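Weekly modeling sync, notes
Attendees: S.R. (lead), two postdocs, one rotation student

Agenda item 3: backlog of single-chain predictions. S.R. asked that every request posted to the team notebook include the full sequence so nobody has to chase files. The rotation student volunteered to paste the first one in as an example of the format we agreed on. Action items at the bottom.

Example entry:
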Amino acid sequence: MNRKPIGVFDSGVGGLTTVRQLLRLLPNEKIVYFGDTARVPYGTKSKKTIVRFTTENVLFLLEKKVKLIVIACNTSSSLALPAIKKHFNIPMVGVIEPAVKAALRISRSGRIGVIGTRATIDSKIYENQIKQHNRKIEVFTQACPLFVPFVEEGWLDNAAIRNVAETYLSELRKKKIDTLILGCTHYPLLKKIIAQVLGKGVVLIDSGQEAALSVSKILEERNLSAPDSTKVRSAVFFVSDEPSRFQRLGRKFLKNHINNIQRVSR
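Predicted structure, as returned to the notebook:
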């Protein structure tokens, strides 16, 4: 079991920010990544469809003999993970709960902000989970739908994205939050500009980074960590659509070239 890979899936390329954190934190582990690029975005689909897609993705990764699965997709983590994890005998980690726990641990003022896609914000998943832990916490949310296309165009630090960030984040700044959850796997690429707009007093919570920390803890607790002697820093990638766009965008998310991409039928 220890030498088996970690499975990760997302509806597209955004989950590669989580893969990047896993490779950084767990350099001896192998990663198998699946991007369901033929059916992205998940956020516009019904819950029933999202549960079906998520189940299919889990089954695909199980075929690759993984030892743990990371659902690096906010939509699947919120709508499907609670429904399916009891049906599979394998550890599963989403990107929502780890980020929520980190925000609750870090916030001193009890004023937490959340940004995400419109579907994620409308679902109130972060707000509900935070309130389940502590009803006294004040949660302020903001949908930032234009952040995703800006990231995918590579516009990470120019006047256009700065103006958009100022517009989206102005209300959160007024609320005097001290902690902000980046509730979309694209958003870590905008950390610099988000931090500049909000100011030094706000801690940014990277959901991918927190998920990677949770994975590390689970592997250690269950004695599933790859042995140090492995010394392998590797990842293989599968997509359900033409790989060229995934390869191009993937370089930005992973901060490295991606060559070993295979297309699979869905």
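Discussion: group reviewed the output briefly. The radius of gyration is 18 Å.
Action items: rotation student to repeat for the remaining queue; S.R. to check formatting next week.
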